[in-house]
Amino acid sequence: MVGVTEPITLATALASFDALWSPRIVTRVNDYDVRVAKVHGEHVWHVHDHTDEFFLVLDGELHIALREPAGERTVVLARGAVFTVPRGTYHRPTAPHGASILMFEPTGTMTTGDDHDDVPAHVDSTAGHELAS
């Protein structure tokens, strides 16, 4: 589906799969993927050494725990909120009640980053999956 010349709604893209923490690539912009994902529960602590990670909450609420020089903190993103995790910052997304999110990051970026804790079975360590046609 990536590279198609027809519009697709985010609702249609999200309705095309059920897997949690397993993003789908909606389109590409230059060398970046635009990915959507359904999330619930906790992801894994991880870091992207060479890229920032952009989040937009489409539905629900997303919490992102951050390990920063001043200590650990959590940002809470409601529907419509955006946040960018700076490169080199350990973080762990969590959605206690479930959420749908959009992420924007360089093509090939792994969902579990360059370094991470043990990856639980419910987290898909991937560079994103193509949408089914």
Task: Offer a concise description of the structure.
This protein has 133 residues and is mostly beta strands.
Layout of secondary structure:
Blueprint: H1 10-15, E1 24-29, E2 32-42, E3 46-47, E4 53-60, E5 62-68, E6 71-77, E7 82-85, E8 90-106, E9 115-116, E10 129-130
Parallel strand pairs: 1-10
Antiparallel strand pairs: 1-2, 2-8, 3-9, 4-7, 4-8, 5-6, 5-8
Compute the separation of the termini in Å: 6 Å
Low-confidence region ranges: none
Could you say which overall geometry the principal axes of the C-alpha atoms support? Answer: globular
H/E element order: HEEEEEEEEEE
- Mean pLDDT metric: 89
- The helix fraction, in percent, is under 10%
For the largest beta-sheet, the strand count, sense and barrel status come to:
8 strands, mixed
Structural class: mainly beta
Features:
single chain, mainly beta, 10 strands, 50% strand, 133 residues, 5% helix, two-stranded antiparallel sheet, 1 helix, 8-stranded mixed beta sheet
Provide structural commentary.
- By secondary structure, the chain is mainly beta.
- It is built from one helix and ten strands; from the N terminus they run H-E-E-E-E-E-E-E-E-E-E.
- The longest helix is centred in the first third of the chain and has 6 residues, at 10-15.
- The radius of gyration is 14 Å and the shape is globular.
- The protein starts with 9 loop residues before the first helix and ends with a strand.
